[in-house]
Specification:
Structural class: mainly alpha
Helix content: over 70%
Number of strands: 0
Distance between the termini: 54 Å
Length: 305
């Protein structure tokens, strides 16, 4: 059975369940059924129907809590996070309201609450932070990233290390965008340390994350007058970006050309003209794809690596 067929079967099951529970109750089971059906509809990209189920679930939550019955943090968060996610494209004010309600209960959310295990909490937090940052709400993103790191603390594994790197990279961006350059440098650095280890052991799942953290930290170091740090970060970023281009994981040749030109210029300023040649050649190679052949035809020897 295909995944679409599984979703169709699950939807039919929850349609029957919601219809029965709307008549017979109990409300607690209806709440879970609405959230489950809303999640299935969201996976089927039936946005309007999914929104309706999350709206109904949140109405139940609000009624129950007005009566003094505290709803499990996992259920509360899943309903508001699900609706917030659906509102991203059409109602970012509503999205922000839902995500802020999620933030208000984050401290209560632990693996085993409602719909969330460790992976579920971490992925939800990073996804919500991404939505918030994409809409310019950097301060609102911060608690989600700290929650992801709290849940990951002490947990070992490739997936855990990659998600920890995600969180530190995002935090670096949050602090950079909110005028806290030293915190940004520190968090980019934590990501870079993790990602360099993962890359060296062929365990990294996103080279671009490493490249951009190096690039962003380089710019911050340059702003702070640390030209040596700027240069070393740019050189390492260029090396990893070239790896992604050569392996087909990236087509950002224009970015690499600009980085190589900047590196060459800085090396010349430092009197390292011979070292700069390698990066000028790389800039020409990626900016002018036929440069290698042309140099060979002209009998020009490339500088040694």
């Amino acid at each position: 059975m295909s995944s679409d067929e599984h979703l169709d079967v699950a939807l039919e099951e929850y349609n029957d369940k919601v219809s029965r529970l709307e008549t017979e109750g109990p409300v607690s089971e209806l709440l879970e059924a609405l959230i489950n059906r809303g999640t299935i509809l969201m996976m089927m990209e039936s946005t309007i129907s999914a929104l309706s189920d999350f709206d109904d679930a949140i109405d139940i939550i609000e009624d129950e809590e007005r009566e003094g019955r505290r709803i499990d943090a996992g259920l509360y968060i899943r309903a508001h996070e699900g609706r917030g996610n659906l509102l991203f494209d059409g109602d970012q004010v509503g999205m922000l309201e839902d995500y802020r309600k999620v933030a208000g209960r984050l401290s209560e959310l632990m693996p085993g609450n409602g719909y969330f295990d460790v992976k579920g909490i971490v992925e939800m937090c990073i996804d919500v932070a991404d939505d918030l940052m994409n809409t310019g709400k950097f301060h609102d993103a911060e608690p989600f990233l700290h929650k992801a790191l709290d849940v990951l603390e002490g947990r070992i594994g490739d997936w855990e290390d990659n998600r920890r790197a995600d969180a530190y990279s995002y935090l670096g961006n949050v602090y950079e965008r909110t005028g806290q350059p030293q915190k940004a440098i520190e968090n980019y650095g934590k990501d870079i340390d993790i990602d360099c280890y993962l890359a060296d052991h062929h365990l990294i799942d996103d080279y671009r994350r490493l490249v951009m953290s190096l690039y962003n930290r380089a710019e911050l170091r340059n702003d702070a007058g640390d030209s040596d740090g700027y240069l070393s970060d740019f050189i390492l970023a260029a090396e990893y970006l070239e790896i992604t281009i050569e392996s087909g994981q990236s087509d950002e040749k224009e970015l690499l050309v600009g980085m190589c030109q900047a590196i060459a210029s800085l090396l010349v300023e430092k009197g390292k003209v011979a070292d700069s040649e390698k990066y000028l050649i790389k800039a020409m190679k990626y900016g002018m794809p036929d440069i290698d052949r042309a140099m060979s035809q002209l009998g020009i020897r490339k500088p040694s690596e």
